[in-house]
Design goal:
With 192 residues, the protein is mainly alpha-helical. The chain has helices at residues 9-23, 30-37, 41-48, 51-76, 80-94, 103-111, 116-142, 152-169, 176-188.
Length: 192
C-alpha cells in the first residue's frame, strides 16, 4: 500500500521557490531544500523527481504569482499611465523580497546560457510580460496618453528591457529613489 503524502505540495513548493529566489539554483543544495521544505529527501524525489524539475516548478509558481499580481494592478488602474506606474512601483518596491530581485531574471542570468529548459521558459515568460506591456501601451495610445510615433510592440520591448534592468539593479544596495528616477525617465519617452 502506498503511503499518503504528509504535506501539502503547494506549500512545500512555495518554500522551495523562496529558497531558490534567495540563493539561486547552483547555491541551493538538496540538503538546503529538504531543510527549508520540511520534508524527507525521498518525498522530495517522489513528488518533484529531482532538483532541476523542482526548480522549474518553483519558477513557474513565481511567474504565476507575479503575473497574477501584475494583472490585478492593471485591472485596478483607471488609465494606461496609472497601470504602467503601478507595475513599475511593484517591480521596484512591491515584492516581498525586493533585495532578492526577480526569480525569473536571476535564473535567466544564472542559467539560460547553459540550460535549454530555463532558456525556453525565460523567453516565454519575457514574451508574456512584453505582451502585457504592449496591451497597456496600445490602451494608452488609443486614449491619447502615449505617443503613437512608435509601434506598441517596439515600445513594449523597450519598456520590458527597462523592467529587466530595474530588476537586476534592485539586487544591489542602490536606493529605490534612483530606480524610480530611471523608471520615470523611461516612461517620459512614451508619454505624449
Amino acid at each position: 500500500m502506498a503511503r499518503s503524502k504528509e504535506f501539502e505540495e503547494s506549500v512545500v513548493l512555495d518554500k522551495a521557490m523562496r529558497l531558490f529566489w534567495e540563493q539561486g539554483y547552483e547555491k541551493t543544495s538538496m540538503a538546503d531544500l529538504v531543510n527549508q521544505m520540511g520534508i524527507h529527501r525521498r518525498s522530495l524525489y517522489d513528488t518533484f523527481v529531482d532538483k532541476h524539475t523542482l526548480f522549474l516548478k518553483a519558477v513557474e509558481l513565481y511567474d504565476h504569482k507575479t503575473s497574477t499580481a501584475l494583472a490585478a494592478r492593471v485591472k485596478r488602474s483607471k488609465t494606461a499611465t496609472e497601470a504602467l506606474q503601478s507595475i513599475v512601483a511593484f517591480l521596484i518596491c512591491g515584492e516581498e523580497k525586493p533585495a532578492s530581485g526577480c526569480l525569473i531574471v536571476n535564473s535567466t542570468v544564472e542559467l539560460a546560457a547553459r540550460d535549454a529548459d530555463m532558456n525556453n521558459r525565460s523567453i516565454e515568460m519575457f514574451s508574456n510580460a512584453e505582451q502585457l506591456c504592449k496591451d497597456i501601451i496600445r490602451w494608452g495610445q488609443q486614449e491619447g496618453e502615449f505617443t503613437s510615433e512608435y509601434d506598441a510592440g517596439e515600445l513594449a520591448e523597450y519598456m520590458h528591457n527597462v523592467w529587466v534592468g530595474l530588476r537586476v539593479m534592485a539586487r544591489t544596495s542602490l536606493g529605490k529613489e534612483k530606480l524610480l528616477r530611471i523608471a520615470y525617465l523611461s516612461m517620459q519617452l512614451i508619454v505624449k
